[in-house]
Amino acid sequence: MKTIHFYFDFISPYAWLGFDALPRALQGISHRVVHHPVLFAAMLKHHGHKGPAEMPGKRDWTYRQVLWLARQQGTPLQLPAVHPFNPLACLRLATACDPGGEPNRYVCEHIFRHVWCTGLDAADPAGMAQLSCAMQPVQDPSGPHVKQALQEHTSAAIGAGVFGVPTWVVDGHLFWGQDALPMLRAFLQGDAWFDGPDWQAVSACVQGARR
Length: 211
What we know:
By secondary structure, this protein is α+β, with helices and mostly antiparallel strands. It has helices at residues 13-25, 40-47, 56-73, 88-96, 105-116, 125-135, 144-159, 181-188, 197-201; strands at residues 2-8, 31-37, 167-170, 173-176. A 4-stranded mixed beta sheet has the order 2-1-3-4, sandwiched between helices. Helix 1 links the parallel strand 1 and strand 2.
């Protein structure tokens, strides 16, 4: 049985789509998923990128595309009242719901649905207080241990080469984006392509123009 390390941030609609689709995508394959909440903004800063919702034209396309994708795969999705928002409260709550900082699927789904299925301001303090009461975290979400655990999750993800969310990591192989789920399934099924020359071919492609 393979262990899948799932790196995600509740701010990402693609992370919600990938989270919801994962059980169906891997149906019939023995696997274990470890959930790692990470701060996407820290990854963007590390790599010098902007998020899709920070660029006007791309922002509009992103929202239209995720609404279409949700409709296609049967995932409930309603745009939140405010986006992007500060996801730290959601991330810390998820981290606080497990002694080791690795929340289970039940916890993650509740928080994802709070963000992507209510149409509300996901960071609203009153709504977060209600969500926290329902989740009954085993640690203080605002405590230093939870903050440190979230920072460690994010640093570990960056160290593993993760640059975006959602990303699934198995045996050192990274699969980024909900559209990579078919590749992830093929890898877990032992597809020989992943041991062939194409997986490593990218390292032989020299970068030309830079800006």
